[in-house]
Structures are given as C-alpha cells and as structure tokens.
C-alpha cells in the first residue's frame, strides 16, 4: 500500500522523503492499533474465567444460606478467586501502561541496590512460606536511569517465578554485576526449568509453558511479558538460560550511568 500513497503525495507537491516518513508513521500507528485490539481481546477472554467463578460462588453462597459450613467454604473460595482477579487486574494495568506510548513519568537516577532491596522484600514472605532461601549477592553501588517502581516490579516478577517454580529447601539467587556500560541483574533458580521449545514464547502475554503445571502456581501468564516491556522501556534486554530439571536464570541487562558521587559507569567486565 506504500506505493500509491507516494504517487498521490508527489502529485500534491509533498516531497517523497516526507511521504515515506508519513507512510511509516501510519504503518506504526496501524500496528499499535492492532496490538491494542489483540490485547483487549486476550484480556477479556482471560478475565471471563475468574469473573465467572466469582459470580457462581456468590450465587452458591446465596442458595446455601441455611448451611453455615457450606457458606463458609464457598466464602473462602470466593475470597481466593477475588484475590486472583485483583492480581490479574493489576498485572493487566501494568502491562497496558508499559505497552502504551506514554513516557515513563518517574524517571530519575536509580540505585540498583534500591531496586533489589524492594523486590526481595516484597517476596520475602512468599519465599519463606515456600521454604526457599533468597540469596542476594554481587556488585553494589551501580546506577541506571529509570523508574524505580517499574524496575522493582520487573525484578520482583522474576523472583516470584523463581520461587514458584522451585522445589522447597532450594535457593534462589539474585545477583548484580557491572559489565561494560551496563548492569546485569540475574535471578537464578534450581527449579523445574523451561523446555527449549517454550523459551522464546514464555515472554508472550498470557503464555504459560505447561498450562496444567502453571495453573497450580496461580500465575497469570503476564509476569514475563511485563518484565520484557519494562526492560525494553529502559533501553535494556532480558535473556533466559534454562534446562528442564536443572533450573533457570533470567538476566536483565540495563544501560549503566555514573553514580551520584561521580563514580563512572562500569567499564571492565568483572568476573
Ligand atoms: P505465570 O504467571 O504463569 O508465572 P509468567 O509470564 O511469569 O506467567 O511466566 C510464563 C511461563 O513461563 C510460566 O507459566 C511458566 O511456565 C514459565 N516460567 C517462568 N519462570 C519460570 C521459572 N523460573 N522456572 C520455570 N518456569 C518458568
């Protein structure tokens, strides 16, 4: 469709170069509009299940009004479904914010130590109840330009997955490393791992490697998609190493900046 538009524009006196830019802009806008349509369709589909469950359980409570034990049991399930729905909704909102063209608003110089502390603290209770030990290590005093909340959520999602897909009494490592002009944050587990055929797809929204297995963990299939978009919005990338039965390591790499005290961004790859 680019050709005819070019010809029309030339006839109306607009330079071909400008027209090319315009055509590219229209294509980009169409692509975004399509992404938005897909997102709304996927999301409505994913919301139907928990909304349906909440409705059914509420009805069940109404009809079991004479039986306090049943009411209590339905109410417990209702509360669990409502929590799931709440988590799903807040993840959908995070992802839709990250996918929109809005700029990140809270940009500042962010200490990676602060990001790690916040992400680790948020998941400390989950780790404890799963019997998993979080082990934090590596370089300190590294900085990036970014939004601390978005970055903490991204690292937190990796930690949450590492805990959820690990056996009890295992360790989850959260390591930081300064490499040339960049900071690497690695979250590694010795859990079930991800088959090679799924390793690309796990970053897609609502994709879950093994549906039956993942369902038990109560996830949403949005965690890694949020990680990918959050990192990309910071000019970084996320990589995955995994072997089924051995474990997984997700590594976020972000452009580093100088520390507020003037210490320059890391230059040499450290071991
Ligand atoms: P979920 O909410 O299902 O965890 P994610 O987007 O965070 O959604 O992850 C997508 C899928 O990738 C998960 O359903 C799971 O199958 C797989 N996965 C993610 N992290 C890990 C991990 N650390 N170990 C094993 N599998 C993982």
UniProtKB/TrEMBL annotation:
<keyword id="KW-0547">Nucleotide-binding</keyword>
<feature type="domain" description="Histidine kinase">
    <location>
        <begin position="42"/>
        <end position="258"/>
    </location>
</feature>
<keyword id="KW-0812">Transmembrane</keyword>
<keyword id="KW-0902">Two-component regulatory system</keyword>
<keyword id="KW-0472">Membrane</keyword>
<protein>
    <recommendedName>
        <fullName>Sensor-like histidine kinase SenX3</fullName>
        <ecNumber>2.7.13.3</ecNumber>
    </recommendedName>
</protein>
<keyword id="KW-0597">Phosphoprotein</keyword>
<keyword id="KW-0808">Transferase</keyword>
<keyword id="KW-1133">Transmembrane helix</keyword>
<keyword id="KW-0067">ATP-binding</keyword>
<dbReference type="GO" id="GO:0005524">
    <property type="term" value="F:ATP binding"/>
</dbReference>
<keyword id="KW-0418">Kinase</keyword>
